Amino acid sequence: MTRRPTRREYLLALGISGTAGLAGCNTTESEPPTETDAGTATPTEPDTPVDTPEQPSESEPIDADSIGGWPMFGANPAHTRTAPGETGPTENVTTRWTFRADNIIQTSPAVVDDTVYVGSHDGYVYALDAADGSRQWAFETGGVVQSSPAVVDDTVYVGSSDGYVYALNAADGSRQWRFETDGPVVSSPTVVDGIVYVGSNDNHVYALAAADGSQQWRFGTRGRVQASPAVDDGTVYVGSLGQRMYALSAADGSQQWVFETGRYVYSSATVAGGLVYVSTSNNTEGTLFVLSASDGTEHRRFQARTNRGPTVAVADGTAYLGTTHDDIFALDAATGAEQWRYRPGGWLAAELSVVGDTVYAGCGDGIVRALDTSDGSERWTVDTGALIRTPPAVVDGIVFVGNYDDTVTAIAEESR
After folding, report:
1. Largest CB tally within 10 Å, which of 252, 253, 313, 413?
2. Could you count the other beta carbons within 10 Å of the beta carbon of residue 276?
3. Which pLDDT does position 305 carry in this prediction?
């Protein structure tokens, strides 16, 4: 069994460690030359999923016929954190079921074909029935799973701190292949047109064939890559702890542009409307840079009051920002003008998803908040009981979210 993280590891995951911790990350990084080079990963024989104790469902099931899909981190390859074809609950909600793993859930759920896929610090990737939360299978990796699964064409792609990227059969969890990097894989895979794009703590971004895991190209960065690559219109956008944001050709990994952030890039970028939203962190403040997707020039920046930059969801010309303090903002995506601000009082550390006319915020105080996109007014709140560090998945009227109490929660309207 993988050990439970210490308090210091929790704080590091939150980006609120002391100066010495962040300085240590910076000074240990080298600056290898930029590169694109070919290689081959050897496919391996499938494994049988590891059996772990069944977890009980805690409420009535949801109608499975209504459950659709949220296939990867951020809902889509551009990580806009919005799904125009989906709906979310707006009133009279309740917790419909919970599933408990053996350690914290720090991954955003993927929901495809009536199944919820999620990873845990206990080292497992779980497949859960979306209707009642019952476990369908569990696959044990060799380390902590902070990488959010991506599910495309009946295959689950996920990274692990053991240094591997795994491809699993979505139906039964058997291993189809694995690709070894030279460092822990915290980055969440993004899958586009048969290619898996993922970063590693070995200072590289990889492009792997989805079919067999063979390496198509790799790109050397300055610093570890923990963010999930965002992919839009043939370009891969990804930041590193070397305080840089890169735009790479999806076809061959060649560098299109690089932007010096002057701060660590832990978070995945959001790409929308010809702009790239890059959240950055340092010891004292967080900064959101808004860059041109075509050439990396800076359009504007937004300064947070805390040491971690805002998370961003973009929908219908509005950028929604969740800060690590006590605010959620709505800004005009074209001008940056503030449209509204939500401040309930207290620490939020909000991770956002937007579906329909509602912003769904998973917050550091353990509460999921639903806000009206027009004015930020509160529609409902549900307390999951523990810290939430990843955006919810919102699928056909259901909110799925994991937390630091080892739990995945499904929230839906009472009438479902």
Report:
1. 313
2. 25
3. 67
